[in-house]
Design a protein that fits this description.
The protein is α+β, with helices and mostly antiparallel strands. The protein has two domains: 73 residues, Orthogonal Bundle (Arc Repressor Mutant, subunit A); 125 residues, ADP-ribosylation fold. Helices cover 23% and strands 20% of the residues. It contains seven helices and twelve strands. The strands form four sheets. A four-stranded antiparallel β-sheet has the order 4-9-10-7. A hairpin with a 5-residue loop joins strand 9 and strand 10. The mean pLDDT is 89.
Length: 216
């Protein structure tokens, strides 16, 4: 877990500030990453990193051998602006035959009032300096196919109309571990794209903001 958290910090948020070169597709030299103090102080070896990548329940990381050099990247969740969505992720299009039927954001009941006022914000309350995207799962809450994109302890789910948002020009992407991501419009996914919201503890539906009732 300590190695996984260190890799997350380096590959999603701090590579540049730690002197590790990161490409616009998110890949970094594994050798460079291994020399960062966050990892050296744990005395981990390459085998430890390989095991963390292979055993990650959320498939957080990806390894690539390129011309004899091993590279590593986080599959999603970046805050560094040097990482380009179109190089890291698969862009979703309206005519994609496998466009997800569900697009569900997992959050917490304590955030509902803020969300109804401000929409879904990339990075949540911490803003897009914390994360570049709003994260979604492509399946219903509780579906065993959900690998990542929704925290296990979420108690509120919000569904959005993915097709309407795409038609309006909002960019959406799919990561290698099947998370749906969007930067929204200027970091915001407005509430009028919401189709429903549900308390996952009680099963009760939440009242949607007035401006998104048309999308039901």
């Amino acid at each position: 877990m300590r190695i996984s958290k260190a890799l997350t910090q380096i590959l999603r948020h701090r590579a540049q500030s730690l002197g590790v070169h990161i490409r616009n597709d998110g890949f970094c030299s594994l050798q460079q990453v291994m020399q960062v103090r966050l990892l050296t102080e744990q005395q981990c070896c390459l085998d430890d990193v390989y095991r963390v990548v292979q055993d990650s329940d959320k498939q957080r990381f990806e390894l690539l051998e390129e011309r004899g050099v091993w590279l590593i990247r986080a599959t999603q969740g970046h805050s560094m602006k040097v990482v380009d969505d179109d190089h890291l992720l698969q862009r979703l299009e309206l005519n994609d035959p496998d466009l997800p039927e569900s697009c569900v954001h997992g959050t917490y009941r304590r955030n509902w009032e803020s969300i109804t006022s401000n929409g879904l914000l990339a990075g949540g309350p911490q803003g897009n300096t914390f994360r570049n995207h709003v994260h979604f799962a492509p399946f219903e809450p509780g579906d065993g196919r959900v690998i990542s994109g929704m925290r296990y302890d979420c108690d509120l789910a919000i569904w959005i109309n993915l097709r309407n948002a795409l038609q309006d020009g909002m960019p959406f992407y799919r990561s290698a571990n099947q998370v749906i991501l969007s930067p929204g419009f200027d970091g915001v996914i407005p509430t009028w794209y919401f189709t429903k919201a549900k308390d996952l503890r009680s099963g009760e539906s939440k009242d949607l903001p007035q401006q998104c009732l048309w999308s039901r």
